[in-house]
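Re: that chain you flagged

S.,

Sorry for the slow reply, it's been a week of failed gels. I finally had a moment to sit down with the sequence you sent. For the record, here it is as I used it:
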Amino acid sequence: MFDFFKKKDGKNKPQEPKLIMTTTEELLMPVRLYYTIHNKKSLIKALRKLKCVLFSEKDDNHFIISYHKEAKKFNLAVPYQEVPKELYPITLAEGYIVGNSKLHIDTRSLRRGVGLVDFLVKFITPSNVIEITAMANYNKATVARDEDEYYQWFNVNYSELFDNVRITDHNVELLNPIQKLLEFHEDSNEEREHKTLEELDKKILLLKQQEIDHYPDVEKIALHYNRASHEEMMNMLGFRAVIKEVVAKKRYDGDRHFTSFDAIDNFREFAEEKTLQSKFN
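Prediction finished late last night. Pasting the structure tokens below so you have them in one place:
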């Protein structure tokens, strides 16, 4: 498994840092989901009904969620049916019930994190058993120079990484500063008359510079779940995850000034190119 780190002479030596991927080929960027438990007994009962969930034999407060059975349809880079048999079953997440009122779900990628939010809404019934309150994520691509660093990231302490991070306590901040950029572009015509393009460009440049100067290694956002707006939240979280992954990869590749705004511009250019191609096909 760790031949990746060996030189041709077979010796393990420090190398240039290499990008760490999960076994389902997403960037390894740790995520913790925070839930409030409203009924612990009902939560455990609902979890035990799922074939993809396995509780610890020694601790009823610790369980894992595997990539099979009910969890087959996660939108990951490697579909369930393409997972090599020698890797089966892949652990998607670990769950920790803290006391009677808190649940933490730890996972190794943003895409897994988004999928777990959707999964738990659909499979934990009744719907008022638990309530998601926050999502924390590591913003940088993780790297390793040797086996020790590789093991450290795969066994990272999620509590030390996330629990003392300040929460951004508003849904508008889900895509901050991305959301602000989108709001600028969604102004009505009347409002646009009071904002010159020059002013708009200045605001965008200011937000981009703020992200260049202060892009956080770790973020924690508040989530205020409403079943009626489930799809909207999932789309927003999914979009946010893709943007974070793109920024992390670009910065790993050496572009330290690449921002969320640049990622959005790339997506827009790609969409426009696809639209033009469809017109001529």
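What I noticed first: Strands lie at 18-19, 31-37, 53-55, 62-66, 91-98, 102-107, 130-138, 143-144, 218-222.

Talk soon,
D.
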